[in-house]
Amino acid sequence: MPLETAPAVAGKPPAATPATRTEARERAARNRKLTVYGARIAVLLAFLGLWEVCARTDVIDPFNFSQPSRIWDQIWQWVTHGTAQGSLGEQIGYTLYEALTGWVIGVTGGVLLGIALGRIRFLADVFGPYIKVLNAIPRIVLAPIFLIWFGLGPASKVASAVVLVFFPVFFNAFQGAREVDRNLVANARILGADNRRVTLQVVIPAATTWIFTSLHVSFGFALIGAIVGEYIGATKGLGLLVAAAQGTFNAAGVYAAMTILAVVALLTEGLLTFAEKKLFRWKPADAGDGR
Amino acid sequence: MSNTPAIELTNATKRFRTPSGALHTAVRDLDLTVAQGEFVAVVGPTGCGKSTTLTLVSGLEEPTEGEVRVYGEPVRGINPKVGFVFQQDAVFPWRTVLSNVMAGPRFRGVPAAEAKERARDWLGRVGLGAFEDRYPHQLSGGMRKRVALAQTFVNDPDILLMDEPFSALDVQTRALMSDQLLELWAGTGSSVVFVTHDLDEAIALADRVVVMTAGPATVKEIFTVDLPRPRTVEAVRLEPRFVELYREIWASLGEEVRITRERGAGRAA
Ligand SMILES: Nc1ncnc2c1ncn2[C@@H]1O[C@H](COP(=O)(O)OP(=O)(O)OP(=O)(O)O)[C@@H](O)[C@H]1O
Ligand SMILES: [Mg+2]
Predict the structure, then answer these.
(1) How far is B55 from chain A (nearest CA, A)?
(2) pLDDT score for B181
(3) Are A48 and A90 within one domain?
(4) Tens of pLDDT along B10-19?
(5) B103 vs A contacts (CB less than 8 Å)
(6) Whose CA is nearest to atom 12 of ligand 1?
(7) How many C-beta atoms surround the C-beta of residue B229 within 10 A?
């Protein structure tokens, strides 16, 4: 039996080569991925390790720069015993609630106004200069004003998130509505679409790519708006945690709050990417996607 | 009623403002009449103004001077009787193939079930029945063009404007689609204006072939194609009269092509 199969196998190496080549390529790709992840973790560990060692050997002052182990202890303490303002979950919930509300309002307003101005020339000509002026104001300085207007509660944070989110979304929606492929609009009109249908079924789908680009960035802005608002004055939230930690010269607390923020931001970013993948099934896969 | 021409361009002129602010004349003093049920092919050198002429008839653009009439009525905006197959890709990338073909009937208020049925019928006729769930980016260029054809035909247009509709197709599909177009046109009695660079195609399909001058476009000469119908594209090419017409029209067109080419070379130099 082995005597018979041996020549048969030897007789068709060409059939075997492509399969093994594909396999080899897949294995190489997997290995490369593992190497990249490994290297990333190594970089992180090296950084944290160096920080820890420097702090312990007093190369840097742990009072100002803190150290990873203390930050971790701080996070752990917040998780197990809660913060001075209440449980950690409640602080995260407040910040997320403010950011999310501000983001939804800002995005809705930005998209609606952007598309309206992009489609209706008259509106664009009238409101264009005002929007440019408003955009030129460094909007983060509005946060204290909102605090005066809306008080210590969530409303003032929502307001600062809204003003930060609105403009990038607005400009992207405007640009998207302006730069719709003229052939597509012409085709839709010939096929029988009225103005409303052109807006709803051509302009908006065509502009979604632009809008989605800004959604990613703008959620980050919403978080910044909420945090800065809380930092200036609040009764709950992660920003307040930072402010409180700073007030008691607790550097570990500041870093711990920042770490939590980063994790929250990364998670929401991941959710958005997931939604985007679902929504943009009609788009060809980006050549640079897997990098 | 049936004596009114389907399309009538009188002294139509179209000027565009170029980015530098100068005026560019794309079409100049164009006179052209297309009778109801007539198949007219338009040939002319590249960039002479053929597509622009079609946009004037469709109502997408207004003539700067002169008048365009469709069924005796001056063109004001888009006429629902007109179908337009664009030179460029114009299918909606975010809609599936089926949904693209359904778009026209849906825009016109046809119930979804009926629109779907009509769209499926047309997808079958252009040979894309198996691809209805794909998105345009998953199709080849020729397949996308066939989606565009189905998208236009599903609306049953009385006037059909076609801007190089078959130029992206392979030779076999092109012959198939040409025969299908002839069959369809004979059945519906619609009027067709068919822009092409392929003289074979123009003669095989049309009742009359219009030769345009080098830009700005105006009608240079019109040839009547007196080949018997029904025709099939492959068979008609072999007739002696076809070859004769080809020679005549090429002589007329060739001169304009040369002028255009020399101009281009002059500008580049
Ligand atoms: N919107 C526009 N603005 C300015 N110039 C234009 C515009 N559309 C067309 N033109 C110009 O008008 C001329 C005619 O264009 P057109 O598209 O009608 O040519 P064409 O005969 O269809 O050419 P082709 O055979 O290559 O498709 C060209 O010189 C072009 O640059
Ligand atoms: Mg053209």
Answers:
(1) 10
(2) 86
(3) no
(4) 999 999 988 8
(5) 188, 191, 193, 201
(6) B26
(7) 10
Domain extents in chain B: 1-81+160-165+191-269
CA dist., res. A222 & res. B80, Å (int): 47
CATH number at residue A187: 1.10.3720.10
Q: Is B86 on the interface with A (CB under 8 A)?
A: yes
Q: Are B205 and B195 in contact (CB under 8 A)?
A: no
Query: pLDDT tens digits, residue range B72-124?
Result: 999 998 999 999 999 988 999 999 999 999 999 999 999 999 999 999 999 99
| Total number of domains constituting chain A | 2
User: A208: nearest CA in chain B?
Assistant: B94
- The predicted pLDDT at position B2 comes to 64
Q: A197 touching B, CB under 8 A?
A: yes
Under an 8 A CB cutoff, do B93 and A190 touch?
no
Digit-coded pLDDT (tens) for B226-240: 999 888 888 898 999
Domain that holds residue A84: 80-281
In chain A, whose CA is at the least distance from the CA of B110? A192
Number of C-beta neighbours around residue B162 at 10 A: 24
CATH classification of B1-81+160-165+191-269, choosing from 3.90.180.10, 3.50.50.60, 3.40.50.300, 1.20.1050.10? 3.40.50.300
B58–A contact, CB cutoff 8 A: yes
Which residues, at least 6 apart from A123, have a Cβ–Cβ distance to it below 8 Å? A116, A117
B72 Rama class: left (phi>0) / alpha (psi -120 to 50) / beta: left
Of the partner residues B84, B88, B91, the one whose CB lies closest to the CB of residue A190: B84
What parts of chain A have a pLDDT lower than 70? 1-18, 285-291
Q: Best substitution site from B28, B42, B50, B62 to test ligand 1's pocket, by max atoms within 8 Å of Cβ?
A: B50
Instruction: Classify B45 as helix, strand or coil.
Output: coil
List, for residues B145-172, the tens digit of each pLDDT value: 889 999 999 999 999 999 999 888 888 8
A57 compared with B3, residue with greater pLDDT: A57
Q: Are residues A48 and A95 in the same domain?
A: no
